[in-house]
Amino acid sequence: MAPSTTKDYFRFPYLTEGEWEEVLSNLSAAEDAASVRIMRVIECLFERPDHKLNAKAIGRTIGVAYQRLNVDIGMFGRHLHNLYGRPSRIPPLGESGELRPWNIVFDGEDLISGGQTPFYWRIKPEMESAIESLQLFRRNRSPAKHDISTVDEVKNAADTAEFEGWDRLAMLKARVNHGKFRSKVLKARKACQICGLKTKQLLIASHIKPWAKSDPSEKTDIDNALLLCPTHDALFDMGFISFADDGKILLSAELSEEDLRLMNIDKSFMLEIPDGMRKYITYHRENIFRGQL
């Protein structure tokens, strides 16, 4: 196999360490889905010894489509440029003079490896210093939403075959950890807790209090999980539905009657809430739910 060599390196200092501390403090406190995804990307990169990985590998590790991550990072870079840009601060520009927004967030590398040229995002030194100063992350704590629960299953997964060394190991460890968590939730819940769907391949062990906001014990606590079908997982994850203390479903006013019908939502539905789950449901209702309380 041909050795990997660096083709190009996009090192571009833009924000200072102090500005990154401000940005990351605000970002880590945000509850919207895009902010949570961006924090997961940053954590995934930070946990690597060399602080770099390509978007496709990051997406597979954290269970988010890499195309979605490309959009998130680009929009985030534009947001930072709008907040911190000034005449004396020249932003990273492409060959045609257009703004290169991702490069405001990360540095980057083109690598030649085995005849392919993957592009790598890399944490900027200023961001790294801010993360260390804020003590944001613990090492080797990456999430993933995949139906893989043993090392043997992961080793045979086709979508990890193109990765080697640490890239592949990080993906394997993350998937095994989440797979074990999902298996415990499946055993305890057995079906979608809203609609009753029982096809295991379609069920998602969804954290009630988001993974990025949970401490290590909460990340693996099955009381911090609902077993949901893809539709109801998306509704819950984005805050369109939540639950009262007595288990009654709460609905965002953004959902129309037609939406409720199409997505099989019964307005009188009651969720059985064990005592250990109550604190997580309260967190979701107060921090993520998009409706009036």
Describe the structure.
The chain is α+β, with helices and mostly antiparallel strands and 293 residues long. It has three domains: 5-134, Orthogonal Bundle (Arc Repressor Mutant, subunit A), CATH 1.10.10; 144-188, no CATH class; 190-293, no CATH class. The protein contains twelve helices and eight strands. The protein has helices at 17-29, 33-46, 55-62, 66-84, 102-105, 125-134, 151-155, 165-189, 216-219, 230-237, 257-262, 278-287; strands spanning 5-10, 52-54, 107-112, 119-122, 204-207, 225-228, 241-243, 249-251. The strands form three sheets. It has a four-stranded antiparallel β-sheet with strand order 1-3-4-2. The longest helix has 25 residues, at 165-189. It is elongated. Residues 139-169 have low confidence and may be disordered.
Helices and strands in order:
Layout: E1 5-10, H1 17-29, H2 33-46, E2 52-54, H3 55-62, H4 66-84, H5 102-105, E3 107-112, E4 119-122, H6 125-134, H7 151-155, H8 165-189, E5 204-207, H9 216-219, E6 225-228, H10 230-237, E7 241-243, E8 249-251, H11 257-262, H12 278-287
Antiparallel strand pairs: 1-3, 2-4, 3-4, 5-6, 7-8
Labels describing this entry:
alpha+beta, four-stranded antiparallel β-sheet, Arc Repressor Mutant, subunit A, 43% helix, 293 residues, 3 domains, 12 helices
Query: Which structural class fits the helix and strand makeup?
Result: alpha+beta
Q: What characteristic shape results from the CA principal axes?
A: elongated
Uncertain segments of ≥5 residues (pLDDT<50)? 139-169
Distance N to C terminus:
59 Å
Largest sheet: 4 strands, antiparallel
Count of discrete structural domains: 3
Order of helices and strands: EHHEHHHEEHHHEHEHEEHH
Task: Please estimate the helix content.
Answer: 40-55%
The CATH architecture category of the largest domain equals Orthogonal Bundle
Q: If helices are DSSP runs of H or I spanning 4 or more residues, what is the number of helices? A: 12
Q: In what range is the share of β-strand residues?
A: 5-15%
